[in-house]
Design a protein that fits this description.
Length: 231
């Protein structure tokens, strides 16, 4: 039974990492969504909620960062606190980036997002304690990286010439959708991690998983930085 639990958890997180290694590095927009965003005018609250939820749920860099954030959180209130810090961060910069037309190179932003995944995996493995002798404030780190994740979401929307009519309402709807997608992903992550914690091999599983997070973050950084230098 313990081995089955470990194997199940490993397969789940391996799927995340394998997905990242192919075509989801930038979690781009599909053709139907692209057409809608380019042709939309006026307030479209429900469609933008759906687009936000789908965008977050398929944004594997965001999800992998959440995996790292909550991996060693055992109490519901701690999960809520850290996820709230992340939510505040990415909500502020998502809305600010789009409504304020803050232009940031998407390759560099996504490279920083990849670094956030690498950072959290390294943190969970106790890397900072071994190298620096202490652990950085994780709440502040989650909030700061949340700000960058929000700019990452904003940069995807800024690829389109969004109509100014109803833009504020549509962006609020998109942000609500992002939170819905995040909540759906979070349920799956929490259930999976709690399931794996029942195994006596969870410690070994945690090392493998967080090493995979570091590898995924490093791959994402390399992919985006290569795109930046070639663009």
């Amino acid at each position: 039974m313990p081995n089955n639990l470990l194997r199940f958890g490993f397969i789940v997180f391996a799927v995340f990492a394998l997905c990242m290694s192919f075509d989801v590095f930038a979690h781009g927009v599909d053709d139907d969504t692209r057409v809608f965003l380019e042709q939309n005018t006026g307030v479209q609250f429900v469609p933008f909620i759906y687009i936000g939820a789908k965008h977050m749920f398929t944004g594997y860099d965001h999800i992998l960062f959440l995996v790292g954030v909550i991996f060693f959180l055992y109490r519901s209130r701690d999960v809520l606190l850290y996820v709230s810090m992340f939510t505040i961060g990415h909500s502020v910069t998502l809305l600010w980036g789009v409504l304020g037309d803050i232009q940031i190179n998407p390759y560099l932003i996504d490279a920083i997002i990849g670094f956030s995944v690498l950072y959290k995996g390294f943190d969970n493995l106790g890397g900072f304690k071994r190298v620096l002798g202490k652990q950085p404030n994780t709440k502040i780190a989650v909030l700061i990286f949340g700000l960058f994740h929000g700019f990452g979401l904003a940069s995807k929307l800024q690829e389109f010439d969004l109509a100014p009519e109803g833009l504020v309402a549509n962006m609020l709807a998109f942000n609500i959708g992002v939170e819905i997608g995040q909540f759906m992903a979070l349920i799956f992550i929490v259930i999976t991690i709690n399931f794996c914690r029942k195994s006596s091999l969870f410690q070994r599983f945690s090392k493998v998983t967080n090493t995979m997070l570091m590898s995924a973050g490093l791959m994402l950084m390399g992919f985006q930085l290569t795109g930046y230098y070639l663009s």
